[in-house]
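Interim report, section 4.2 (structural modelling).
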Amino acid sequence: MAVTPEDIARLAGLARIHLDEEECAELAPEIDVILEAMARVGEVATNDVAMTTHAVPRTNVFRDDEVTPGLTQAQALEGAPAAEDGRFRVPAILSED
Amino acid sequence: MINKTAAELGRLIASGEVTSVEVTTAFLDRIDLLNPVLNAFLHVDREAALEAARAVDSSVAAGEPLGPLAGVPIAVKDNFSTVNMPTTCGSRMLEGWQPPYDATIVARLRDAGLVVVGKTNMDEFAMGSSTETSAFGPTRNPWDTERVPGGSGGGSAAAVAARMVPLALGSDTGGSIRQPAAVTGTVGVKPTYGGASRYGVVAMASSLDQPGPCARNALDAALLHQVIGGHDPLDDTSLDVDLADLADEAAALSLEGMRIGVVEEFRGEGYEDDVLARFDEAVQALEALGAEVVSVSCPRFEYALPAYYLIHPAEVSSNLARFDGMRYGLRAGDDGTRSAEEVMALSRAEGFGKEAKRRIIIGTYALSAGYAEQFYGQAQKVRTLIIEDFEAAFAQCDVLVSPTTPTAAFRLGERTKDPMAMYMADLCTIPSNLAGNASASFPIGLSSAGLPVGLQVMAPPLKDALLYRVGGALEQTLEAGWGGALVADIETKGA
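Predicted structure of the assembly:
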């Protein structure tokens, strides 16, 4: 399989984690060993076996559609790294043009 | 005072023989004495604890009806949201963050009059088996401060073992309650999945995470389980379970009529001789209590660990996506020149430690196009096979038993460079997370090096009461031989 530092860099991009070259080079062989060990699941996971997503299955869990108190605007903003005019302040996500 | 059980303390407080303030003060003093050595607590709030204690004492004086644990101090793992205390999950990402609401279970503690004294150390976002991945330094094992207290809930287990608190909360995703309990000589219970609400518990792997009690004995754990368990309208995976008989079951003196299965696969290579010796003695004790002991095979359990380390990182990579530095938590690199995406990537690089990054990357890989079927999909199939093995075993037996961990507590630093060796610590505990059944660890003695060994009891889903029956009866037999509780003997070095 051999996971390469380039693979790690691509995955880190998908996961939105900045990793430098050194970190990618260190993680690649570690993750390769782990994934190789974990690939053993293929030995028994044959086509006739159904997947389990939840161990204690529940379906159609309903509740009454009633309004209950939620967080106030001030509470929601309490932990914000930056806030302005009662809103979360974030870096620009659209360019000027 | 600190040697008394939670049940005894609750009785003494309710009868007015001692006040909750006296009890709480005794434990707070113990925390002050030992925490500099053990680092079990990340946050202690003496004033808030004493205020809660005074409120209980006023209720006692007014003759108001109180629950059995009213006035008893408790520690809360730092991944439970607490409105009056920071909640860091052992991560720089959430350093200093104070949630705007309480986890349902924490609210239930407060309603029942328990006194929350502080928040306990843990592996970062509960990823680890030694509490060494905490951004705020490792917790040390009170039995030997050069050794780990297990993880991820090493802080809660060490705090209970060292009698800094009589009770604590934990969360168990692959063994994070049971494995620390085993290596610290305490009791840890993972209820049936859904048996206690996850609302307000910071999500790691949602299909596996299960909060539960940490205590010094079976009865205290059962009483705490009764306080925290049951359906919560805010967690649609929580179950409407009957908890009424848990405490009575913990007082059982006989296992007459029970069939107990010993899992054949959980011994052999990698298991310490002392662990197996204590386990075999405990199994004999179960037989002496009247249980019929049989050997059972769960042939697919050997695939539980690889399946877990695919499903778990996959869910981690999704759940931890919320920590992006936008609405709460750490934000890094926001100097006005960088885009939101760049700021997110820098915040996550600075906020997460190495193990968190490693698992997020593995999870991203296991879920990425072209690999999802090969890794995540196959792991989900193995989950079905694990459940089938459990069902076949439970068709023959009421409960299953195994050592909780293959080894006693290992040394600090011994496994930090070898993730695979670290992952092996959860070998015996992981199947119950994948299958969602109830499972617990109870202390069964010491290794020749004086380190605690635990026995794991696994019961079918919703049969949590059986854990307490087996654990309670075993504990009474073993304690009679030891001349008291196992943890009463600890002399923590440096204290």
